[in-house]
User: Which sequence fits this backbone?
């Protein structure tokens, strides 16, 4: 929701946000999703990378709020296996899938700028802005999203370790139903519901992004060590936009 001045108006008052975290901080994931679906209705969306264990969140939402739009950012650089995995899960779970692509094709980007992901931190930042952050912001706007379900877990990165079950990102409510789940709990849920993992997991890929910046890892490594796009282990989608980036989106022709 936007005010007359164009600023995003947060759909929960601070006091309600605190009460929700107190009530749902340790609640079952299904309770959190049910609360979000009732509280935000058509304003609720979900994002999914269709990565290694994405079937968990997709199945949970399929059970509790099956009409929820599921946003997939197709950077144009996903693994072929990711496209097929997403197609399989869409059919299996009857997902309300919304695929969003960058405004500028990968071929055009490479012709104009070269391989941005190979051009240091500034190049990586621009790559993420064009191919991930801007398409996600556009999808959220187009869908009228006031709240966003995400399958982040606190044991994945330092940033995620500091998240709350229900937070705020760029004026929208961000809901993390499986924030406190362990890897064993994720595996148990997949097994209990006979859900597939991404096919590249069998080849040692445990955190899966774009094909040019994802490597397999060994069991003794952190799964995110396989994501080699810059220094950060975050792709930018789950970090608040800086004021500078926000202004850039408004003025950009992308």
Assistant:
């Amino acid at each position: 929701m936007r005010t007359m001045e164009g600023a995003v108006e947060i759909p929960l008052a601070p006091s309600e946000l605190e009460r929700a975290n107190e009530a749902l901080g340790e609640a079952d994931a299904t309770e959190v999703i049910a609360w979000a679906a009732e509280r935000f209705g058509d304003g609720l969306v979900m994002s999914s990378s269709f990565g290694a264990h994405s079937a968990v969140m997709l199945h949970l939402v399929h059970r509790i709020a099956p009409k929820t739009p599921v946003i997939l950012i197709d950077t144009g650089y996903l693994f072929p296996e990711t496209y097929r995995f997403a197609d399989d899960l869409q059919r299996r779970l009857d997902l309300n899938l919304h695929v969003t692509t960058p405004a500028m094709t990968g071929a055009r980007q490479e012709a104009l700028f070269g391989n941005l992901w190979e051009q240091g931190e500034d190049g990586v930042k621009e790559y993420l802005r064009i191919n991930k952050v801007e398409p996600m912001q556009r999808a959220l706007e187009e869908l009228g999203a006031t709240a966003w379900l995400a399958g982040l877990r606190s044991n994945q990165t330092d940033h995620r370790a500091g998240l709350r079950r229900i937070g705020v990102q760029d004026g929208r409510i961000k809901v993390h139903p499986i924030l406190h789940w362990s890897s064993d709990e994720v595996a148990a849920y997949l097994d209990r519901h006979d859900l597939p993992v991404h096919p590249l997991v069998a080849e040692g890929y445990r955190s899966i992004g774009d094909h040019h910046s994802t490597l397999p890892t060994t069991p003794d490594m952190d799964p995110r060590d396989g994501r080699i796009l810059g220094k950060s282990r975050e792709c930018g989608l789950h970090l608040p936009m800086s004021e500078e980036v926000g202004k850039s989106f408004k003025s950009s022709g992308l």
